[in-house]
């Protein structure tokens, strides 16, 4: 279903009912920011309360998911500015001191991926999640984050490069995947070394 | 970029893991306290006649 088609069909829904349909992805986005399931769920609850209170200001027919994600990220960053515990590491200096080079012998497990992902700076995790996982276009993600489209593209690129580094994916052309589902998707037309 | 380049394969690997991690979380059952919150918010709306 295209975004436009979804929006058209969602026009018939009460916005409060539509809000509920986005809670799953909202939790996933929250987890990518907070990296802690309990904190993420608290963030989602706060977001739901804020969204519900201002539901009258939501323009039906527009992208509710983007609206909810924006509320959530603004709430997250406001809380972070207050706590000031997060190390801003936009150049990756801190992250560079950490290593997750997995002992994967060419295999990549989900846990290794998530450990590496969690080490990216906030902005990069957010960019990858919005563009790579949630399916927003660069300009949509940029608008939600209040940055230029070029900035968003840059963040996504830096995030990908850093993940390649952390996961030690450089070098070898062939990869083995421990996950059959991922393997099936990626290697249907590629040679894969199997032991 | 051709899907067959090393760079493209790495990006595909990252993208697929990212999407799977995201989808795994997105399809989880909603926690009970979130459901309770929704119930509470709806209840308040019904009480205030806001719907």
Topology:
The complex is a heterodimer of chains A (195) and B (51).
Chain A: H1 3-10, H2 15-21, H3 23-34, H4 37-53, H5 64-83, H6 93-96, E1 107-108, H7 110-118, H8 122-133, H9 138-145, H10 149-166, E2 176-177, H11 180-186
Parallel strand pairs in A: 1-2
Chain B: H1 6-26, H2 32-48
Outline the structure in words.
The complex is a heterodimer of chains A (195) and B (51). By secondary structure, chain A is an all-alpha fold. Chain B is 75% helix and 0% strand. The radius of gyration of chain B is 21 Å and the shape is rod-shaped. The interface between A and B is large, with 41 and 32 residues.
- Biggest β-sheet of chain B: count, sense, barrel? none
The string of secondary-structure elements of chain A, in order, is HHHHHHEHHHHEH
- Shape estimate of chain B: rod-shaped
The tally of strands of chain B reads: 0
Multimerization state: heterodimer
The string of secondary-structure elements of chain B, in order, is HH
Give the overall form of chain A. Answer: globular
Helix content of chain A: 55-70%
Number of domains of chain A: 2
CATH structural class of the largest domain in chain A: Mainly Alpha
Tally of separate helices of chain B: 2
CATH fold annotation of the largest domain in chain A: Arc Repressor Mutant, subunit A
Give the CATH H-level superfamily of the largest domain in chain A.
Answer: Winged helix-like DNA-binding domain superfamily/Winged helix DNA-binding domain
């Amino acid at each position: 279903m295209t975004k436009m088609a979804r929006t058209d069909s969602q026009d018939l829904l009460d916005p409060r009912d539509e809000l509920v349909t986005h809670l799953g992805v909202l939790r996933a986005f929250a987890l990518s920011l907070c990296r802690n399931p309990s904190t993420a769920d608290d963030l989602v609850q706060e977001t739901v309360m804020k969204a519900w209170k201002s539901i009258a200001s939501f323009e039906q027919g527009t992208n509710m998911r983007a609206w909810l994600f924006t509320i959530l990220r603004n709430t997250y960053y406001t809380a972070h500015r207050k706590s000031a515990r997060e190390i801003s590491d936009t150049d990756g200096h801190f992250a560079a001191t950490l290593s997750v080079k997995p002992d994967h012998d060419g295999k990549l497990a989900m846990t290794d991926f998530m450990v590496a992902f969690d080490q990216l700076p906030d902005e990069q995790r957010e960019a990858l999640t919005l563009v790579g996982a949630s399916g927003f276009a660069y300009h949509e993600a940029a608008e939600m984050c209040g940055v230029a489209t070029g900035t968003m593209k840059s963040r996504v690129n830096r995030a990908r490069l850093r993940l390649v580094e952390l996961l030690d994916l450089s070098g070898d052309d062939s990869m083995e995947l421990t996950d059959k589902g991922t393997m099936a998707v990626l290697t249907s037309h590629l040679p894969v070394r199997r032991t | 970029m051709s899907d067959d380049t090393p760079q493209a394969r790495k990006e595909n690997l990252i993208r697929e893991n990212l999407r799977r991690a995201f989808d795994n979380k997105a399809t989880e059952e909603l926690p009970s306290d979130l459901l309770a919150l929704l119930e509470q918010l709806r209840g308040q709306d019904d009480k205030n006649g806001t719907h």
